[in-house]
User: Which sequence fits this backbone?
């Protein structure tokens, strides 16, 4: 395999993740102020229903495909065959899900009040026909992914500003979101020429059915505790309640996506090392990533919890003030989801332990459904947030139990102590800024800047390994950029 530079891939991955943070943040901020909580809630409810069908249509192919393509980096014929097999499986499952969804929307009375909205968001299911992102990630084509993402997101942002102007434009907002998905998929298909060939002979579709169905079961279980909360809120509460929860959740997951960006770029490399018996390299990268994730996640959790009362009104307006407590509860997700992605997607899937991942997410799904049923009727969006936080922690405990032996990470007391001390100084700095009673925008900016700066400075002075790793990677990336 002509391996691409991890440093270069990290640059592209971080750019891609930065786009995935900035653009959703801008669109969510704009939509919140134009559509208000009620409009945001209507669209979130419709997208929530559609997401179930997209998960089933995709089976487990998005993650499974990355691993399978990465394993065949040196085998063009093998790559063509596995791509074709997965493409045909995806096409069949998408056709079935599309027919079922539109049949349901067109005939069931439950959709009558917002039928146009549900018909519109259903386009996302149809567009799953062209979802071949797994090929580009398996081939580590992160430069292309970043460039494509920027072009599509910029066009969708322009369309949002031009066509979404008042509270009645929520269907247009949903349509723009679907067309943004379409843009990504169509770029992918057009760019495939010369990279892979779709073949029809000598295919063995059956060999993929068991692993993709296991991953489908995992995906469904995961969605039960990441989507069912919104589904239950939609059924039991008003649209504005769904809007509060949707934006708080979106903000927590946007922050998490930034923390997880480095881990994402390593999945193809981890698969390659493990499947070629290079276990020392596998464990070395895994340990480095785990240290970086913990060092980044701890200040992020604390920062979100401390600055939620500034973040929500600055980003979404005073109409979303009820989401402040919700965001504070969901701050736990910033760390739990990042570590779950590491132990689940990065480790258990790479070593072929999809069944253990399935067990982990089933535990989370059961906890989430039970707690949602108990808490949502009384505590609404805050009850759903608490259920999500607890269930994610339960999944983390399970994935860590199953995945720890593959990483062989040793917790050192000195390492933990340096993180605790750095976090303590950071909290004191942020609380000191809050005592100044500054305007919210200034408080938020200073809180983030000073908090991050103090934390990294303390980590450096205390010689925290994770902080030194981050600074080292930053220096190497800067050198790579300057050379280019």
Assistant:
């Amino acid at each position: 395999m002509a391996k691409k530079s991890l440093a270069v891939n990290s640059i592209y991955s971080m750019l891609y993740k930065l786009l995935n943070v900035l653009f959703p943040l801008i669109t969510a901020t704009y939509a919140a102020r134009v559509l208000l909580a009620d409009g945001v809630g209507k669209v979130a409810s419709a997208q929530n229903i559609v997401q179930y069908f997209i998960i089933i249509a995709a089976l487990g192919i998005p993650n499974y495909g990355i691993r399978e393509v990465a394993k065949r980096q040196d085998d063009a014929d093998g790559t063509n065959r596995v791509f074709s097999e997965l493409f045909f499986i995806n096409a069949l499952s998408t056709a079935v899900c599309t027919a079922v969804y539109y049949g349901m929307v067109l005939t069931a009375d439950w959709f009558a009040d917002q039928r146009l909205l549900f018909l519109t968001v259903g386009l996302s299911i149809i567009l799953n026909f062209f979802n071949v992102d797994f090929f580009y990630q398996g081939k580590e084509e992160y430069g292309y992914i970043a460039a494509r993402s920027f072009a599509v997101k910029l066009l969708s942002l322009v369309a949002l500003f031009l066509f979404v102007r008042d509270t009645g434009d929520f269907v247009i907002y949903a349509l723009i979101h679907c067309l943004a998905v379409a843009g990504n998929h169509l770029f992918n298909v057009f760019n495939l020429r010369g990279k892979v060939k779709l073949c029809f002979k000598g295919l063995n579709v059956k060999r993929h059915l068991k692993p993709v169905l296991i991953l489908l079961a995992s995906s469904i279980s995961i969605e039960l505790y990441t989507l069912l909360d919104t589904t239950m809120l939609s059924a039991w509460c008003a649209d504005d309640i769904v809007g509060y929860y949707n934006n708080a959740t979106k903000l927590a997951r946007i922050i998490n996506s930034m923390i997880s960006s480095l881990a994402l770029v390593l999945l193809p490399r981890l698969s390659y090392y493990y499947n070629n018996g290079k276990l020392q390299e596998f464990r070395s990268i895994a340990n480095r990533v785990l240290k970086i994730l913990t060092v980044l996640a701890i200040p992020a959790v604390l920062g979100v919890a401390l600055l939620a009362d500034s973040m929500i009104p600055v980003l979404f307006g005073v109409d979303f003030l009820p989401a402040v407590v919700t965001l504070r509860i969901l701050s736990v997700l910033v760390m739990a989801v990042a570590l779950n992605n590491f132990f689940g997607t990065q480790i258990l899937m790479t070593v072929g332990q999809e069944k253990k991942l399935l067990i982990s997410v089933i535990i989370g799904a059961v906890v989430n459904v039970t707690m949602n049923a108990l808490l949502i009727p009384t505590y609404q969006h805050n009850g759903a947030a608490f259920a999500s936080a607890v269930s994610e922690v339960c999944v983390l405990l399970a994935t860590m139990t199953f995945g720890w032996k593959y990483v062989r990470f040793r917790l050192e007391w000195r390492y933990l102590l340096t993180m605790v001390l750095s976090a303590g100084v950071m909290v004191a700095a942020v609380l000191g800024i809050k005592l100044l009673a500054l305007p919210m925008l200034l408080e938020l900016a200073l809180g983030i800047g000073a908090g991050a700066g103090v934390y990294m400075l303390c980590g450096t002075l205390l010689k925290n390994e994770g902080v030194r790793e981050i600074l080292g990677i930053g220096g190497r990336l800067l050198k790579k950029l300057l050379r280019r």
Notes: The two ends are 23 Å apart (CA to CA). Residues 354-407 form the longest helix (54 residues).
